[in-house]
């Protein structure tokens, strides 16, 4: 069964720990099922998750350079956008408009480029770079077989007091107060520090979340049907803008990022629909980076509003203490139960195997989560109970781990991975 074995480090992470707490069967199917023992995921990825992944990739490369040249920034963005485009076959796009990959590429490009204008100088002034997206494996002293994987986005040393902090990026449609509050009690943040501390031998005293607000994606209005039933469009000045055509010398061409704006007199105003039709950025003939530069120079507040810093959150000492005991005991139960299954030497579809599975890893039957979202395992778990997910290639594929140590372990065991990006928990 995947995740380790008698002679290997037992690799685990927060995602599977939390999945197992929600539903034991979900963790089993996602992380441990199949003859290879590494589990399955849906064979398409949510668009938002893939966008978030490639925003992270571009940011990581830029921060790694720390004081990057303009060309390095543009190269990092172009590389991320190319990688994003290559993921199209693995994304669930059937209800999207034809230009969605281009639209979201502009979103990635604009958001990351704007971040380098607004936030990168702040980091450079206030911190020293320690590491970027470094894989950490924390071995708790109570059971050194267990390797708890984490990959903090960046570790920075605060120049004012020399304290170490873990900083994570989150892309979100918009940031709410409850999201900011939620992170003050986040196990993700708390345990993300442990591997860093063990490796560096220095305490990590705080966490910071860097939110990048993308804007909403809402269904378009169908004027014939008089309903919001057209494919979703991204609300972002990097994707769609309002453009007034020029009529020199009487009227200059003019571009606006928002339909509603605050005028010089402080009052809210709207553009004239007749004078300012909306255009897709990629059809405008205008360079995205030049447009962001113009916004930075003339309407900086539009870019400022996109970036929200949450924290610094102090280290959650109590949570770390409790979690360490809870996690070690829970992982030991998983090791024991998986070996009991493995010892049967039976196929997963065998009734005796299924019976033991029911007893060791019961279903929660809490299959609908936030906003009525159905568990990705539903098809294999409920609709086709007892089936092997490997027999459902239209729905599932081998899980692609998002931590390198596990990828290396899988490759060393001769397991071939599909070309999809790993499923991560990018906040929406
Ligand atoms: S479909 Fe329901 S019971 Fe099955 S793994 Fe998901 S949450 Fe658990």
How would you characterize the overall build of this protein?
The chain has helices at 14-22, 24-32, 47-65, 70-86, 100-118, 120-126, 177-182, 187-200, 288-298, 300-304, 317-343, 351-360, 378-383, 404-412, and strands at 10-13, 40-42, 127-132, 136-138, 146-150, 154-158, 164-172, 204-213, 217-222, 227-234, 240-244, 254-256, 260-262, 268-270, 278-280, 307-314, 396-398. The protein is of the alpha+beta class. A hairpin with a 5-residue loop joins β13 and β14 (268-270). α5 packs across α9 (288-298). The radius of gyration is 24 Å and the shape is globular. Iron/sulfur cluster binds next to α2 and α13. The site of iron/sulfur cluster has 14 residues, from α2 and α13.
List the helices and strands and how they pair.
Elements: E1 10-13, H1 14-22, H2 24-32, E2 40-42, H3 47-65, H4 70-86, H5 100-118, H6 120-126, E3 127-132, E4 136-138, E5 146-150, E6 154-158, E7 164-172, H7 177-182, H8 187-200, E8 204-213, E9 217-222, E10 227-234, E11 240-244, E12 254-256, E13 260-262, E14 268-270, E15 278-280, H9 288-298, H10 300-304, E16 307-314, H11 317-343, H12 351-360, H13 378-383, E17 396-398, H14 404-412
Parallel strand pairs: 1-5, 7-8
Antiparallel strand pairs: 2-17, 3-6, 4-5, 6-7, 8-16, 9-10, 11-12, 11-15, 13-14
